[in-house]
Amino acid sequence: MTKQSLLIMAIISALISALFFIAASLVLICTEPERMEEGHTQWQGIQRERGARLYALHCTACHGNRGEGVGQLGPPLSNEHFFTMRLHETGWTDTLEEYIRTTTQFGRMMGTRPFYAGNGSTAVMPPWSKKHGGPLGINEIESLTAFVLNWQATATGLVELAEVAIPLINKSTPQVLTKGRTIFRKKCASCHRFTDRQLSFNSSDQREKGPDLSAIRKLAPTRVEGKSAEEYIQESLLIPAAYVVQGFEEASHNTPCGPLLTVSELQTIRAFILQ
Amino acid sequence: MVYYIPTPETAYDSIIQLQTRVPFGSLIRDLHRLGGEVLIVVSLLHMLRIILSTSYTKSSRFTWVTGVGLLLCTLLLAFTGYLLPWDQLAYWAVTIGISIADSLPGLGTSAANVLRGGAELGQEGLLRFYFLHIIGLPLLMALCMAMHYYRISRYGVTPPTRKNSTISTSSKSSEKQYLPLFPHIILLEFSISCLLLALLMLICRFLYDAPLGFPADPIHTPTATTAPWFFLWLQGALKLGDSLLMGISFPLLLLALLVFLPYYDWREKKQHSTVSPLHHRLITLVPLVLVIAVLLALSMVGRPQYGFTRDPVQALLLDYIPEEEPSVFHRLGYANLTLGIYEPGATEQAQQSLSIQNGQGTLEKSLRLSTSHPLQNVLERCGQEIRGLHLHQVKPLLIIEDWQAGLKKVTLRITWEPKPRDGQQTGRQSMERITYVAGPARVKKGKSA
Fold it and tell me: Is the ipTM of this complex over 0.95?
């Protein structure tokens, strides 16, 4: 094969390749709007998934497993009121999305509803962004915002969810209870004791700062009407002043239990107390 | 470069913006990623072809050396670019990569600190990698490329034909027949470029998505940190020996072998010029095949599954719902995740009784999955694998529930009776992993989204 014939072949192949390239480009140009839409929807989905994970990790202790709120501790985030009235209540002039984002980022120093934790005078929601001392990055705040906002569809009745009764994981295994005992000893025993279980860790200090928990298992389910034993214990751990036993008023207002515990520690201690 | 802002706070967001808001942004990112990886493959194949076809001669030995320089630049560009999305996968792979330099006696720690911009990868490190990726290494690569092309234009390349083809026979008068760089080689390269670029574009549009994990978190180390595939051999080598020997000496030895290959090979060719081309190259080929085999074996060792003992139950749960990658249920798709409580590996009757036991009469219908249902296949496979763990009185559960509009929660839970210790029963043990799968929301009839 001579150089000339090779040159002709090279020119023909260059022309065919260029045509193929132009055709491929045209396909891409025509399908790009569709791809962008797909990409955007897909990313929104990923945001919701990540937000759900973060919510389960950081927010359930105060706002409930599915945003239903926890007693007087944290307000509901998945009800209609939050999506229709909250902005008017606070006088917020921007969007609800911005409201959620800002509140999550900066936290809230003063409560707007005295009913909930903080009683209008102390910080009620901690700041969550890393910049302000929290554990979350900007992307994570965005994911959480997207997840909370997505409750709007169910809150306003646009979407109905099917219910599945979940068999709960057995939290009272020996491992959990042993761990609960260790945490109790470290973080709770300076104020509380179990006389019946002969658990008194603070033998040097005879003053009782918190009530004896010997009868708690029987007392907890009936202590507050409408609250299960688990709910009662959880709320008492997070807000010691929520339901005060007579004689312990002062100690309950000066003892921060909730901030000392992680969610997992809280659940473990709850299992230990109610065993 | 127009949309990317190299700071830890904004880098990840820039990539998201590029993929979701910028027209053709996703295409550019996918092309950039896939193109980079294909370039490594093509470079290696090109080098292999040159070795096998004895294309280098005394005059083109240095061309080979510049080619090795180009391969090195390509690998370093891929490595520095790997960090820029600032996701977990990239952050930890690069952290481990840089820590190899720490093991170098004397200047090692200082070199690693210069590269990282401090004791830990952060703002400074990201900026340095960005600089290397967009200015430093491209300049070096341009230099190598200029030298490579100069040598080709000066000494020519071997024509893409066999020795017994017409071009060789028709020009017996001259010992060597070269094609001129312009227009022949340029036109040929233009054709191949157009063809490959068009193919890559179509693959990126319809088949490939550049990976992007969770945003980088310096506090949380993922359970399985893996190097990019082209450095898996190095990760494997590091698992087998210390960083100085396997992380630095071994790659340097490989590089030296590669650089001096044509010099050694050329002498062989001269001495055995009467022997057939394959025979006189055996001395080169055998070690080459050995090196390739070793690199492949090391890459296998480098995979996160190798040499990493995990609790078997946890390992199984992580196989189905990994920490960073999409889970089996994501691959299955939102629509195929029929709501309900399932026992993987159980018969249809067992599934049904399970639903009644849990008071889920309404879900009974959904639990009767047909044998061809994709979820049924996953349940069967999962059940088999759980049985393979040989746990006593094991009871696996898969729970799929509606969590939000367009969001399902999937819980995979395994409970079992552990063997008694010192004659004492320890009670049932339980482990679970949870994931969320997003999809389109089912809007009630008569209402619009």
Answer: no
CA dihedral A171, A174, A176, A178 (to 10 degrees): 150
How far is residue B182 CA from its own chain's centroid?
Answer: 37
Whether chain A has a CB inside 8 Å of the CB on B329: the answer is no
CB atoms B358 and A169 under 8 Å = no
Q: Which of chain A's residues have a Cβ under 8 Å away from the Cβ of B20?
A: 36, 39-40, 43
What is the overall mean pLDDT for chain B? 81
Cβ contact A176:A265 at 8 Å: no
B363, A21: Cβ pair inside 8 Å?
A: no
Q: What is the pLDDT of residue B350?
A: 60
CB contact under 8 A, A154 and B166: no
Q: Do A158 and B20 touch (CB under 8 A)?
A: no
Q: Which residues pair with B404 in a beta bridge?
A: B407
Out of A155-164, B79-88, B182-191, B266-275, least confident range? B266-275
Query: How many Cβ contacts (< 8 angstroms) between chains A and B?
Result: 190
For the segment A250-263, what is each residue's pLDDT rounded down to a tens digit?
777 666 665 567 66
Residue whose C-alpha is closest to residue A270's, from A228, A237, A243, A248: A237
pLDDT at B168 over 50: no
How much of chain A is in helix, strand and coil states, percent to nearest 5? 55, 5, 40
CB burial string A144-178: b at 16+ within 10 A, e below: bbbbbbbbbbbbeeebebeebeeeeeebebeebbe
Does any CB of chain B come closer than 8 Å to the CB of residue A109? no
Mean pLDDT check: name the lowest of B27-31, B99-103, B108-112, B205-209. B99-103
User: Which helix (H) or strand (E) covers residue B401, if one does?
Assistant: strand B392-404
Looking at CA atoms only, how far is residue B264 from chain A in angstroms?
33
Nearest Cα neighbor of A29 from B24, B217, B389 is: B24
Q: Inform me whether the pLDDT recorded for A51 exceeds 70.
A: yes
- Could you please report the per-residue DSSP string of B190-220? HHHHHHHHHHHHHHHHHT------SBP-TT-
User: Is pLDDT larger for residue A178 or for residue B269?
Assistant: A178
Mean pLDDT highest for which of A87-91, A111-115, A208-212, B327-331? B327-331
pLDDT tens digits for A262-273?
667 777 788 888
Q: What is the predicted pLDDT for the residue at B347?
A: 67
Per DSSP, chain B holds a count of helices (H) and strands (E) of 18, 4
Q: Which of A48, A58, A275 to mutate to test the interface with B (most CBs of B within 10 A)?
A: A48
Q: Which residues contact A244 (CB under 8 A, 6 or more apart)?
A: A252
Q: How far apart are the C-alpha atoms of B310 and B223, rounded to whole Å?
A: 10
Q: Is B436 helix (H, G, I), strand (E, B) or coil?
A: strand
B161 confidence band (pLDDT: 50, 70, 90): very low
